Amino acid sequence: MEMLDRFRHSGSPDALADTPLGVVMKGGLAGFAGTLALTLGVKVAQWFATSGGDDDRGQRSGEGDASAGMGASQALAGGQVQAPFLDQSTELFVQKVATGLFGASLSESARTAAGAGMHFAYGGFWGAVYGLVQSSLRLPAALHGLLYGLVVWLIGPVTLVPAMSIMPPPQEQGGRRALLVAGFHVAYGLALGLVFDAFTRPGRRR
What we know:
Layout: H1 2-10, H2 20-51, H3 57-60, H4 63-68, H5 72-75, H6 89-102, H7 108-137, H8 141-163, H9 175-200
Helix pairs in contact: 2-7, 2-9, 6-7, 7-9, 8-9
C-alpha cells in the first residue's frame, strides 16, 4: 500500500511543480509575462518619442522603409537594413529567415504576426532557462531577475542581434537608445523573476 500511495502522489499535478518539466513550464509562462512587460515599455517609450516630435535618428532611422514593406533583397542587404526600434527587430528577423530559406518577401501583416509570435517565443525560451537556473540557485527573485535581464541583453541586443544586422551595436545606437534597450531587458528580467517566484512560492502548493 505504501508503494501504491507513492505512485499516486508522483503522478499528481502537484508533484510536477518541483520537476524539471514543471519549472520549465512555469519559467516559460513567467517569460511571457516578462516579454509583455518589455513590450509595454517599448510602446510607452515610442509614444513619448512620437508625441514629443522626437526625430532621434538612433531610434527612428529607416522607419519609412520598415512601414512600407521589406523585400527579400532588402533583407539580405546586411547593415543597410536595421530595425528603427526594438519591437520591429523580430519582424526583420522573420523576414531574413523567410528570405534566407525560401527567398520570399512577407507582407506587412504576415511579418507583424510572425514577429509577434517570435518575440513571445523568444521571451518564453529565456523564461524556461531561467526556471531551470533559479530552481537550482534559489537566488532572491528581484536580484536574479535583474541580473538575468542584463544577461539576455548582452546575448541578444549586444551580441547576436548586431551580428545579424538587425540592429546596430549599442555603441552605434546613441547613449539614450542603448540605455532604453538595456532598461527594457531589465524590466523583462524583473517581471520574469517576480512572476516565477509567485508561481513557485511554497504557500501556493497544497
